[in-house]
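Posting this for the archive.
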Amino acid sequence: MANKPSIPKGTRDFGPEEMAKRNYIFDTIKRVYALYGFQQIETPAMETLQTLMGKYGEEGDKLLFKILNSGDYLKSVSDDELKERNTLKMQTKLCEKGLRYDLTVPFARYVVMHREELQLPFKRYQIQPVWRADRPQKGRYREFYQCDADVVGSDSLLNEVELMQIIDTIFTEFGIRVQIKINNRKILTGIAEVIGEKDKIVDITVAIDKLDKIGLDNVNEELRGNGISDEAIEKLQPIIKLEGTNEEKLDVIAEVLKESETGLKGVEETRFILDTLKNSGLKNEIQLDLTLARGLNYYTGAIFEVKALDVQIGSITGGGRYDNLTGIFGMPGISGVGISFGADRIYDVLNTLDLYPKESVQGTQLLFINFGEKETAYCLPIVAAARKAGIRTEIFPDKAKMKKQMSYANAKNIGFVALAGETEMQEGKITLKNMSTGEQELVSPEEMINRI
C-alpha cells in the first residue's frame, strides 16, 4: 500500500469554505488600504540571499529558508569542506537564493530598483505568503500570509497616525476587539544611553521584546548573559515595569531621558501620534508599552503591535518606521513606515470567535436540476441570465437521480434549487425550491432572479 501523502509541518491546506473565509480577510484589508490611497504590488517568492541576509538580526538569519542551487550544487565545494561540515560556511556556496522572510525587505529592494518609476511618497500594499524556518506551534506557521502597507519617501508622522487608523478600521470591521500597542525605538535607544549601555541597544531590545513570553526574571538573565552590568539592569527595572496612562508614562520617561537627545525625540514623536489620534474616533484602545521592542533591527522610530483581547494568540499586526532600510541597498535617505497584518492569525481569531458574516462564506446560491438534454437546453439561457444578474449559479452536469442532485445541493448549502420539466417548459417558467423552508413556487425566470 502506498504511503499516505502529507504536507510539511507548519503549512496548511485550505478547502473552499476556508478560502472563502480567507478571501473575506484579504478583501476587507485590500478595501481599507485602497481607501487610504495605497496601491498593490507583488514581488517574487524567492530573493537572493544577498538581499535577505543581515536584515533581520542573527536570529532572523537562522530562520531563513535557503534554496539549493540548481544543477550540480556541490561543484564549488571541496572534499575537505565536506568533511569539515561547517554548515554556515557551506550554505554560502550551496545556496544563492532564499524564500522571503517578510515583505518589507523585498519592498525596500523594489523601491531601490524602481526608484525612477515611483512618485514619492509611494504608498504600496502587498498581500503574499512569507516563509520562516521556525518551530511550528499554535498560531505560528512556517508558511503564512502577510498583508503589508508601507509609505516611503515621507518623514511626516501623519503616516503613523493613518496607519493606526487603518488598524482600528480593519479590526472594527472584523468585529475583533484589540489593543494597539505603540513604542518608539528612539526611546529604547535613549534608555540604553542613560543606563550606560549604548552599544548594547540590540541586545537590550531583543531581550525586552521577550518579556511577555519568558517573564521578567528570564529577561534579566538574558541581559546579564549579553554582558550588561547588574547596575544597568537595575536601572532598567522601573522602565520595564512602568504603569499609568499614556500621558503619565510619557511624562515619567521624559524625565528619565532628559539627558538623552535621541530619547526625548522619541518621546516627542510618540506624544504627537497619541495626541493626534485622540480626536480621530478610534474604537480600540491604543497603549504606550515601553517593553515593546520588536526584535527586527531595521526599526528606527515608532513601532506598533496589535493583540486580540478575546483570544490567546500572539501578535496579529505589527510594524514601525525604518528610516535606514533602503540605505542597505545603496539608496540612503529614504524614510519608510509600515504595518503588516498576520492573515493566518486573524483567520484563527475569527474562527475562534465565529465572526464571519454569513454572506462571506456562502458559495453557490442556485442549482438547476438536470433532467436530460432537452430540459438542460431550456435551462441554459436562464442560467446565463441568473449569472448575469450576479447570482452564483450551477447546473448539475449529469442526468443523475433527483436524490443525488438534491444531496449535492444540501452538502454545498445551496439556498435555492430550480427545476424545469415538461410543465415548466410549456409555460416558460421554473419551479423554485427554497432549501431552507422547503417551499416551492412556479415562477418566471425574471421572478426567480428577483426572489434570490
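Residues 16-35 form the longest helix (20 residues). The mean pLDDT is 90.
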